[in-house]
Amino acid sequence: MTNIILCGGSGTRLWPISRTLMPKQFVKLFSCEEKKQSLFQLTVERNSKNCNSQYIVSNAEQYFLALDQLEELEKVNNKYLLEPVGRNTAPAIALACLDLPYDEIVLVTPSDHLIKDETEYAKVLEKAKELASEDNLVTFGITPQFAETGFGYIEAEGLAVKAFHEKPNKQTAEEYVKAGNYYWNSGMFCFKAGVFLDELKTYSPEIYETSKLAFNNANKEGIVRITHDDMSNIPEDSIDYAVMEKSKKVKVIPSDIAWSDVGSFDALYEELPKDENNNTLNPNHISIDSKNNLVYGNERKIATVDIEDTIIVDTGDALLISKKGSSQKVKQVVAQVRETTELHNIHLTGHRPWGTYTVLTEQEGYKVKRIEVKPGKRLSLQKHYHRNEHWIVVSGTATVTVGDTKKYVRPNESTYIKMGELHRLENEGKIPVILIEAQVGEYTGEDDIVRIDDDFSRK
């Protein structure tokens, strides 16, 4: 059985922790054996116990995050398919299935769900695998713990699906839970790759045909890379609308597996460890007569006095304060943030395939960064139209190319790159290169980069 892991989505309901270039599935929120792990890593570890291989569907930016986190887990032999633009779950699953044998049973899972009862989960997967081997399309219905209005529901008659229902209001959700045959729609599926494609071809032929064309045209040298034009031509639709709500082969397995989609700060609060006052554990939190709070922040001390039932999230460049129970409204905050800043897109620390950069300060006319380059990695050969750059090496030895000149820059040494000059930074050593970069110019945005050559096929 192959686990198809869907890594798309920006997790806007967990802003400012989650950003477009560091979505919630890659944020290390959970402590496991004295180390922090992300939902993506937990998904990989959980499903690797039940599947022979894993196939990761991601966009190009998130691919490098996935690669780094898989290296931490020492899981490196995975297949990857990169989407240049998201078209929802039906095309993503179709493209992966086109790369697999017809009879291969696949387990399709989001990368950002938490499942705590792995023993029951393994039993549920065995049932799903059995039904999938009989050419059924299997979905997993989560036994509802309360009347949730943020999920779609599956109405069942035994293992048969009677109907899919959209997110209900509170009264309807209470009726669903009381009825006993309604389940939360988990967004997880199990079926033969070829059976799914047959059903997609029957019920959503345009998605099938355009996905097939995109896959056939893709670059398949190691990683399957879909072209932007081909991906854009695929109609955007979810697997529910495209197939599951139309097919006559759908079965649902009731699943009581301690599941959460961690889709809001209220949901996250329930999953994090707490102190004696029911505040989430945080060494930076000073609590005076405060209780029942989610307090997140790794950079500054956060002191609360007589605060209750509140969500406080500090990420250095943004501060969110919300009443518990209202955190679904964070999406409205993100909509306003998009209009004026890039805070929806990236953190102060940005992750790149070669390492990381952290913005230390930024004002009109200049920006200062801390840059860390991994051993054996190098930045693209590039130039800028609107800024000059000064590099001061703090540790390691940097190999710097400026124009036709290549030289080594050691700790406490510096170099200067004029606006418009071709340049490249490389780490040929065995320890990380850390340097301070001072940018000076009329514009210091991240999009002022013209890449001439890049090891990671970025444009």
Automatic annotation (TrEMBL):
<dbReference type="InterPro" id="IPR029044">
    <property type="entry name" value="Nucleotide-diphossugar_trans"/>
</dbReference>
<dbReference type="Pfam" id="PF01050">
    <property type="entry name" value="MannoseP_isomer"/>
</dbReference>
<dbReference type="GO" id="GO:0016853">
    <property type="term" value="F:isomerase activity"/>
</dbReference>
<feature type="domain" description="MannoseP isomerase/GMP-like beta-helix">
    <location>
        <begin position="284"/>
        <end position="336"/>
    </location>
</feature>
<dbReference type="GO" id="GO:0000271">
    <property type="term" value="P:polysaccharide biosynthetic process"/>
</dbReference>
<dbReference type="GO" id="GO:0009298">
    <property type="term" value="P:GDP-mannose biosynthetic process"/>
</dbReference>
<dbReference type="Pfam" id="PF22640">
    <property type="entry name" value="ManC_GMP_beta-helix"/>
</dbReference>
<keyword id="KW-0413">Isomerase</keyword>
<dbReference type="InterPro" id="IPR049577">
    <property type="entry name" value="GMPP_N"/>
</dbReference>
<protein>
    <recommendedName>
        <fullName>mannose-1-phosphate guanylyltransferase</fullName>
        <ecNumber>2.7.7.13</ecNumber>
    </recommendedName>
</protein>
<dbReference type="InterPro" id="IPR005835">
    <property type="entry name" value="NTP_transferase_dom"/>
</dbReference>
<keyword id="KW-0547">Nucleotide-binding</keyword>
<keyword id="KW-0548">Nucleotidyltransferase</keyword>
<dbReference type="InterPro" id="IPR014710">
    <property type="entry name" value="RmlC-like_jellyroll"/>
</dbReference>
<keyword id="KW-0808">Transferase</keyword>
<dbReference type="InterPro" id="IPR011051">
    <property type="entry name" value="RmlC_Cupin_sf"/>
</dbReference>
<feature type="domain" description="Nucleotidyl transferase">
    <location>
        <begin position="3"/>
        <end position="276"/>
    </location>
</feature>
<keyword id="KW-0342">GTP-binding</keyword>
<dbReference type="InterPro" id="IPR001538">
    <property type="entry name" value="Man6P_isomerase-2_C"/>
</dbReference>
<dbReference type="Pfam" id="PF00483">
    <property type="entry name" value="NTP_transferase"/>
</dbReference>
<comment type="similarity">
    <text>Belongs to the mannose-6-phosphate isomerase type 2 family.</text>
</comment>
<dbReference type="GO" id="GO:0005525">
    <property type="term" value="F:GTP binding"/>
</dbReference>
<dbReference type="InterPro" id="IPR051161">
    <property type="entry name" value="Mannose-6P_isomerase_type2"/>
</dbReference>
<feature type="domain" description="Mannose-6-phosphate isomerase type II C-terminal">
    <location>
        <begin position="342"/>
        <end position="454"/>
    </location>
</feature>
<dbReference type="InterPro" id="IPR006375">
    <property type="entry name" value="Man1P_GuaTrfase/Man6P_Isoase"/>
</dbReference>
<dbReference type="InterPro" id="IPR054566">
    <property type="entry name" value="ManC/GMP-like_b-helix"/>
</dbReference>
<dbReference type="GO" id="GO:0004475">
    <property type="term" value="F:mannose-1-phosphate guanylyltransferase (GTP) activity"/>
</dbReference>
